[in-house]
């Protein structure tokens, strides 16, 4: 079921709802929508009413303004919590940063789970990445922006993360052309095309730059918090969870073995969502 919540600025925010039981909002990360986690939601739906939010500029929700900040994402999530009555939140990657910042100011969040927020120990590195990304987007070079995003987040294979950006751009252009041909032949599928999502990288990298180096501000977080991680994810994401484990007063940690950052995604996106369902069921119950 597709539903909409009204944000403080009057914009309608789209989300999909399935299941029954206590309410749980899932907040997706970069280069994705709620649809990327539909199998995860299905696995939780026997115990919870799951709401798959589409953050602004993605899927069911309209684009954000140029000066969009993490506080604006927090306001949107609080609007969805108010509309649904949900008191549980699971934030994934960038969505984990939004969820953490929301829990800090929102007493309506009773239990919080997060998966690998891409937080750096300081803001200089993500700020420099944001400048490169914005330059590519300003030049309308979406393939280059996608490469900068992948390498900046260290989410590709190690040899690609270290390769010259110019070497990878033609490969991404070919991938985008193939994506367009597939769309022309088969029509839209469940996922938003990469070329369409590329501009949203500006907002997500801005959130990382705004919040990196500020983990100490979360020391008073009152909610029980589950810190989920994957054994094969980038070292800086594991370090971010280490930092959060030391900082949050009511945190417990689970590391999923032999998987990487895409584990929360659907099977056809190289995820293994069934591995994520069990710890979430136990924690949120």
Automatic annotation (TrEMBL):
Keywords: Hydrolase. Residues 24-263 form the AB hydrolase-1 domain. One of its GO terms (molecular function) is hydrolase activity. InterPro entries: AB_hydrolase_1 (IPR000073), AB_hydrolase_fold (IPR029058), Carboxylesterase_BioH (IPR050228). It comes from the Bacteria. This is Alpha/beta fold hydrolase. It comes from Spongisporangium articulatum.
């Amino acid at each position: 079921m597709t539903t909409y919540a009204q944000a403080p600025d009057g914009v309608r925010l789209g989300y999909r709802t399935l299941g029954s039981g206590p309410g749980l909002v899932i907040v997706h990360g970069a280069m994705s929508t709620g649809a990327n986690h539909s199998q995860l939601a299905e696995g939780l739906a026997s115990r919870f009413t799951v709401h798959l939010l589409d953050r602004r500029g993605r899927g069911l929700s309209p684009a954000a303004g140029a000066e969009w900040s993490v506080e604006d994402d927090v306001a949107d999530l609080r609007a969805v919590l108010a509309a649904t009555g949900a008191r549980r939140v699971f934030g994934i990657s960038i969505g984990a940063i939004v969820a953490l910042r929301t829990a800090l100011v929102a007493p309506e969040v009773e239990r919080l789970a997060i998966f690998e927020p891409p937080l750096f120990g300081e803001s200089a590195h993500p700020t420099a990445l944001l400048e490169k990304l914005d330059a590519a987007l300003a030049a309308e070079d979406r393939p280059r922006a996608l490469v900068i995003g992948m390498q900046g987040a260290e989410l590709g294979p190690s040899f690609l993360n270290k390769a010259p950006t110019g070497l990878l751009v033609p490969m991404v252009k070919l991938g985008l052309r193939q994506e367009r041909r597939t769309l022309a032949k088969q029509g839209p599928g469940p996922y938003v095309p990469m070329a369409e999502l590329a501009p949203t990288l500006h907002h997500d990298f801005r959130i990382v730059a705004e919040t990196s180096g500020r983990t100490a501000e979360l020391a008073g977080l009152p909610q029980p918090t589950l810190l989920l991680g994957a054994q094969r994810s980038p070292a800086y994401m594991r370090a971010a969870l280490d930092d959060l484990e030391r900082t949050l007063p009511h945190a417990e940690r689970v590391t999923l073995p032999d998987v990487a950052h895409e584990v929360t995604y659907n099977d056809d996106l190289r995820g293994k969502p069934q591995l994520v369902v069990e710890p979430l069921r136990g924690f949120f119950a």
